Amino acid sequence: GDSVTQMEGPVTLSEEAFLTINCTYTATGYPSLFWYVQYPGEGLQLLLKATKADDKGSNKGFEATYRKETTSFHLEKGSVQVSDSAVYFCALRGRDDKIIFGKGTRLHILP
Amino acid sequence: DAGVIQSPRHEVTEMGQEVTLRCKPISGHNSLFWYRQTMMRGLELLIYFNNNVPIDDSGMPEDRFSAKMPNASFSTLKIQPSEPRDSAVYFCASSRPPGYEQYFGPGTRLTVT
Questions:
Q1: pLDDT tens digits along A9-56
Q2: How far apart, in whole angstroms, are the C-alpha atoms of residue B71 and residue B32?
Q3: 3-state secondary structure at position B89
């Protein structure tokens, strides 16, 4: 069945460092791909999305490119801030229209 | 616009008691999802409704769990009887068609002692 695999955390970086959180997926067809973010004490919220191959989603300085050849959707940010500390979830929309979430990657940014 | 509303935000109860969690989806959204989040198991989809009808309840862990959606603006998740292993944060989310962006509520943190 459809699935999402993302790198295990926690990931700890210093402020202004470059961030990459890896995400790969298994699915038939051409699923839409998402990154959600969960700040402490809150629910998940959509960070960015891409609906077809080679699309780049971007928001708040974060980017991810839909790579069908490598079945990947890695999240990147050029210069992280302390306020980016959160849990990040990669997800896809499966054939039955359910959203399949990865296990989440906790990110800590040190000042 | 109001987002997804969940109540209560925190619930502490004793083992064996009935627990009811409530959710009001965003107006105009016709899909509603219940999730459970724990450190050990991550985020799990319990059940989802489309147009008030349960579509997939394969994630409901046991018969102790039940969910209803009597109308487009209200849903409940009930646990009876509750057990300590049910302790988790329960999220409700809604979307327009079920495969589109989901909007999450703030969650209910349930502690069963």
A1: 899 999 999 999 999 999 988 899 999 999 998 999 999 999 999 999
A2: 11
A3: strand
Q: For position B1, what pLDDT does the model report?
A: 64
| CB within 8 Å of B85: residues ≥ 6 apart | B112
Structure tokens at B73: 């603006």
Torsions phi, psi for A72 (to 5 deg) = -130, 160
Nearest to A101 by CA among B69, B36, B3: B36
Chain-chain contact of A93 with B99 (C-beta, under 8 angstroms): yes
How far is the alpha carbon of A90 from chain B, nearest alpha carbon, in Å?
A: 12
Interface of B with A in 44-73 (CB under 8 A): 45, 48, 56
Note whether B97 contacts A97, CB cutoff 8 Å.
yes
Asked if A33 contacts A91 with a C-beta cutoff of 8 angstroms, the reply is yes
Q: What is the arithmetic mean of pLDDT over B15-31?
A: 96
Please say whether the beta carbons of A67 and A90 come within 8 A: no
